[in-house]
């Protein structure tokens, strides 16, 4: 449910009434984005009461102009959405990824992944963020155990061994056993907790746009490595694709400043003619690219989830899936603790979450960072070495299978939700 104002007595001071309002929830989630809402749904379905606080009202986040990105949903993430009964609302907008073709500029060497080589469904799915958000908002609206308080700002968060108190700008106070920071890369909740991050900028911007094309894409995702950075053509429903064009930060203003015709000409030059005639939707977005890892992802009655805990380069399309692995692990840890009668916000319970997620996060951050550094240059010896590497991997069946299963999220110590199992 969404927030509504409480009635007051005639002549009463509404602000004073708000200041006196205190409510209780098992879990307070700061941040109502994709990760925050997925977590809220999963916890509420297991009988926990959840309060989600966000600066943006949910309807504003559903506007197509709010977020133009499309997200790669790995096979394991799709199983999580199925287990939470979110996938049916997403399925009609989800484009299966049947193949991935990786190439290095004009080189004839390439790497080709085909879902037929695994024989158990698509490699993943492309879903526009607006449809992910709509499915989550609709699900939350039907859950009595979830309250969304938005638009609202957090004033202070007090945490102790006894519990947590989240004071809002309106004067309302939320008491909870656990606070989850789901408020993104610039997490104010993380900063309030005094948790430092290791961070560096790639000095790159990701430009996002949607193209319409004459010929079908056949469910094939293309990742082309150019000297300035990756250029991805990602299939959407219909004869449409999402572009993620990585450019140096210094070049971004000139590219974003191009008129519709100029921008379309630059896109056509990079896409080529394999999709036939290409037109570009006028609206485009750009986002700075960086890497960060929190020094720790838990503190007293606090857990960091998704981008609040880590942010990686989008080169492999795994950032959101990494966050969903946080979500699945955290829900399992909390639900298991609740069933045993344990304090869900205790150091022991949060310690299990931290240990479970640390290695996966560090390894994937290192891999994406290394790939971006390897391919975002045009040094001849390096270019020759990586082209040979691409061709070698393409010819080693077991190695290709490993990479495909890794991209699908089908290896490692997975939470039950990522296998589609009920908790």
From TrEMBL:
InterPro entries to which the protein is assigned, alphabetical: FAD-bd (IPR002938), FAD/NAD-bd_sf (IPR036188), Ubi_Hdrlase_CS (IPR018168), UbiH/COQ6 (IPR010971), UbiH/COQ6_monooxygenase (IPR051205)
Biological process, per Gene Ontology: ubiquinone biosynthetic process
Stored Pfam families: FAD_binding_3
Residue span of region Disordered: 1-23
One GO CC annotation: ubiquinone biosynthesis complex
Pathway terms, separated by semicolons: Cofactor biosynthesis; ubiquinone biosynthesis
Domain FAD-binding, chain residue ranges per copy: 25-334
Sequence intervals crossing the membrane: none
Source organism (scientific name): Rhodothalassium salexigens DSM 2132
NCBIfam families with a match to the protein in the record: Ubi-OHases
Similarity remark: Belongs to the UbiH/COQ6 family.
Alphabetized GO MF terms: FAD binding; monooxygenase activity; oxidoreductase activity, acting on paired donors, with incorporation or reduction of molecular oxygen
Keywords, in A-Z order: FAD, Flavoprotein, Monooxygenase, Oxidoreductase
Protein name stated in the entry: 2-octaprenyl-6-methoxyphenol hydroxylase /2-octaprenyl-3-methyl-6-methoxy-1,4-benzoquinol hydroxylase
Cofactor(s) the protein requires to work: FAD
């Amino acid at each position: 449910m969404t927030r509504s104002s409480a009635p007051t007595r005639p002549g009463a001071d509404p602000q004073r009434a708000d200041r006196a309002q205190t409510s209780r929830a098992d879990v307070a989630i700061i941040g109502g984005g994709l990760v925050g809402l997925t977590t809220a749904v999963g916890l509420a379905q297991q009988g926990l009461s959840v309060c989600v606080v966000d600066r943006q009202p949910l309807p504003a986040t559903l506007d197509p102009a709010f977020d133009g990105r499309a997200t790669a949903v790995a096979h394991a993430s799709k199983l999580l959405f199925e287990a939470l009964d979110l996938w049916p609302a997403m399925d009609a907008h989800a484009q299966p990824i049947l193949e991935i073709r990786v190439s290095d500029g004009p080189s004839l060497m390439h790497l080709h992944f085909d879902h037929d080589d695994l024989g158990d469904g698509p490699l993943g799915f492309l879903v526009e963020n607006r449809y992910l958000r709509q499915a989550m908002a609709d699900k939350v609206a039907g859950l009595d155990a979830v309250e969304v308080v938005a638009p609202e700002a957090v004033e202070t968060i007090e945490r102790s061994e006894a519990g947590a108190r989240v004071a809002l700008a309106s004067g309302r106070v939320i008491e909870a056993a656990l606070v989850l920071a789901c408020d993104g890369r610039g997490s104010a909740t993380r900063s309030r907790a005094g948790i430092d991050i290791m961070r560096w900028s790639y000095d790159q911007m990701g430009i996002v746009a949607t193209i319409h094309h004459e010929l079908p894409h056949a469910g094939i995702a293309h990742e082309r490595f150019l000297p300035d950075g990756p250029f991805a053509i990602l299939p959407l429903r219909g004869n449409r694709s999402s572009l993620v064009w990585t450019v140096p930060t210094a070049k971004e203003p000139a590219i974003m400043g191009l008129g519709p015709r100029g921008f379309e000409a630059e896109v056509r030059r990079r896409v080529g003619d394999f999709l036939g005639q290409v037109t570009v939707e006028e609206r485009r977005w750009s986002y700075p690219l960086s890497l960060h890892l929190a020094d720790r992802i838990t503190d007293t009655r606090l857990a960091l989830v998704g981008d609040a805990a880590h942010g990686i380069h989008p080169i492999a399309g795994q950032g959101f899936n990494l966050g969903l692995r946080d979500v699945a692990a955290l829900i399992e840890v909390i639900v298991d603790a609740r069933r045993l009668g344990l304090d869900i916000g205790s150091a022991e319970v949060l310690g299990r979450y931290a240990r479970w997620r640390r290695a996966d996060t560090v390894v994937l951050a290192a891999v994406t960072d290394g790939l971006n550094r390897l391919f975002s240059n045009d040094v001849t010896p390096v270019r020759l070495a990586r082209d040979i590497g691409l061709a070698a991997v393409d010819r080693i069946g077991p190695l290709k299978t490993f990479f495909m299963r890794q991209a699908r999220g089908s290896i490692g110590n997975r939470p039950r939700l990522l296998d589609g199992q009920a908790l």
